[in-house]
Design brief:
8 helices, alpha+beta, Alpha-Beta Plaits
């Protein structure tokens, strides 16, 4: 038997021990074992190993996971419950710093709110402030025509439109404003002095 044939037979011995050889391969291995008694000894050793391995139960996945967990618990440092609670608390200087920053933010917000209430600002047109003139704009008037008329006559919209489509306007001279608006039929439908 050549070296190549011996290597092939050695490779087939494992499959012979498992009983998974084809009939031709089994015949080839048995012929080689008849010529070489060492091959027969190797086969009986492989069969004994196979029987021993089959008798030993395999660990389940749950058993392996439990074994890993227990090993990790044994290796981890042991802390008492009091140490665990103490470790979750923020150190006092950090807590104090957070409280001071929150207080500074609250004071700053209050200051800006207080300063903002004194500063003149915008009011909503429907804020309920009283105006000097009560006006209905012509439906055909464009926004540009209305704006230009109000700028020319130094008038400001104070509130409106009401449910009837009326606007209240503020004027430095309500009587002059009423006369000037009455002359602008292309922009103004009606005007009334609200201070009378």
């Amino acid at each position: 038997m050549t070296l190549l044939e011996k290597e092939e037979i050695d490779a087939l011995l494992v499959f012979h021990a498992n009983g998974t050889l084809s009939p031709e391969e089994r015949l080839q291995v048995e012929t080689a074992m008849a010529r070489d008694p060492d091959l027969a000894d190797d086969l009986s050793l492989l069969q004994a190993l196979r029987a021993e391995m089959q008798e030993e139960p395999l660990p389940t996945a749950g058993a392996l996971a439990q074994q890993r967990l227990m090993s990790a618990i044994v290796k981890s440092p042991q802390n008492s419950a009091a140490e665990a609670v103490q470790n979750t608390r923020a150190p006092w200087p950090v807590a104090r710093l957070v409280a001071v920053l929150a207080l500074v933010a609250l004071v700053g917000q209050s200051f800006y709110a207080w300063r903002g209430s004194e500063a003149p600002g915008y009011e909503l047109a429907s804020s309920g402030a009283r105006g000097d003139l009560l006006v209905a704009f012509n439906p055909d008037a464009t926004e540009e025509m209305i704006r230009q008329t109000l700028l020319d006559l130094d008038l400001q919209i104070v509130s409106g439109p009401s449910s009837l489509g009326l606007y209240r306007l503020s004027s430095a001279d309500p009587e002059a404003g009423e006369k000037a608006l009455s002359a602008r039929n292309d922009v103004i439908e009606s005007v009334e002095n609200a201070t009378e």
